[in-house]
From TrEMBL:
Residue span, Alcohol dehydrogenase-like N-terminal domain: 37-155
Keywords: Metal-binding, NAD, Oxidoreductase, Zinc
Pfam families per UniProt: ADH_N
Protein name (record): Alcohol dehydrogenase-like N-terminal domain-containing protein
One of the protein's GO biological processes: formaldehyde catabolic process
Source taxonomy: Eukaryota, Metazoa, Chordata, Craniata, Vertebrata
GO CC field: cytosol
Organism the protein comes from: Cebus imitator
Subunit organization: Homodimer.
């Protein structure tokens, strides 16, 4: 790997994982072009792996275009900034954001991100002379990446980057689903479907809200398997359903018809639909969804020990073990895996 050229120069070769689909990623030498106006080139220190990447590799993601550099849960340092960047500079510690810190995501980034391109409709990656696409506006499976300046959150430089990389998605999504989206209140009964990293973060959010009187390590009072019962799970949990339910698996579950709040957290397949009798909504049942939990960043909460994060990491792997990460995801042997770049 040639490291003799300046990091900000066009065509600087770095290692990146170019994903071709079908569960496989290859380690390639790529070129990351210098940043244009309102863009950043950033150095990835560590990246976590979300189930969304596995979903994209499966071919079911309608916005999954290949070849691309996947990854969206990273911890990074700004390498260089393009013209017009005023709030960030080289050396700043940041976490990438699929949803920028502004209200104009649908207008500024959503359309181009859905096509795996930068906001200006271009790609900043090439490999052997061919264009490589971006992913979720972040592409963290690389030594260096290119992002829009609105697509990162500046965080405390004291934060250990290998510990906070997944706070930009999985942790924020689950924790925020309970605290920000549902706004669970004390004495309520909550049900969480799916106990991966996102589901465990939901449990932690419920614990912070003093929902569970007999909380375990991150807040659960008991765990059950829906397939073990012959009747609907809402009838097993309580008489008619729970007050709040959090769906973290990409399928549809139920809570109490009259007053329950159901929060869709997991990413469902593109063809899936939610169907119900409108009367459920008329008499008070509420459906909500959440996008990254409504947070900019949870790093300060982690630094001040208001939330747990270290306990979620079950595996630490090297960059050349990226395909092993997906094996762990599909075998359900990992809660959160962090890859050090």
């Amino acid at each position: 790997m040639d490291r003799s050229r300046g990091h900000g120069e066009p065509g600087y070769p770095v290692q990146g994982c170019s994903c071709l689909g079908g569960w496989k990623a290859s380690s390639e030498e790529i070129e990351v072009a210098s940043p244009k106006a309102h863009k950043l080139q950033i150095k990835i220190v560590a990246t976590a792996v979300c189930h969304t990447e596995a979903y994209t590799l499966s071919g079911a993601d309608p916005e999954g275009y290949f070849p691309a550099i996947l990854g969206h849960e990273g911890a990074e340092i700004v390498e260089s900034a393009g013209e017009g960047v005023t709030k960030l500079k080289a050396g700043d510690t940041v976490i990438p954001l699929y949803i920028p810190q502004c209200a104009n995501v649908n207008f500024k980034t959503r359309v181009t991100q859905g096509k795996c391109l930068m906001p200006d409709g271009t790609s900043r990656f090439t490999c052997k002379g061919k264009t490589i696409l971006h992913y979720m506006g972040t592409s963290t499976f690389s030594e260096y990446t290119a992002v829009a300046d609105i697509s990162v959150a500046k965080v405390d430089p004291l934060a250990p980057l290998d510990k906070v990389s997944f706070l930009g998605c999985g942790m924020s999504t689950g924790y925020g689903a309970a605290v920000n989206t549902a706004k669970v209140d004390p004495s309520s009964v909550c049900a969480i479907f799916g106990l991966g990293g996102v589901g465990l973060a939901v449990k932690m959010g419920c614990k912070v809200a003093d929902i569970f009187a007999r909380a375990e390590e991150v807040g659960a009072t008991e765990c059950i398997i829906p397939q073990d019962f012959s009747k609907p799970i809402q009838e097993v949990l309580t008489d008619g359903g729970v007050d709040y339910s959090f769906e973290c698996t990409g399928t549809v579950k139920a809570c109490h018809k009259s007053w329950g709040v159901s929060v869709a957290v997991g990413v469902a397949a593109s063809h899936e639909e939610i169907a119900t009798c409108p009367f459920q909504l008329v008499i008070g049942h509420t459906w909500k969804d959440t996008a990254f939990g409504g947070w900019k960043s949870l790093v300060s909460e982690y630094i001040f020990k208001n939330i747990k994060a270290d306990e979620f990491v079950t595996h630490n792997l090297s960059f050349d073990e990226i395909n092993k990460v997906f094996e762990l995801v599909h075998s359900r042997k990992s809660i959160q895996t962090v890859v050090k770049i």
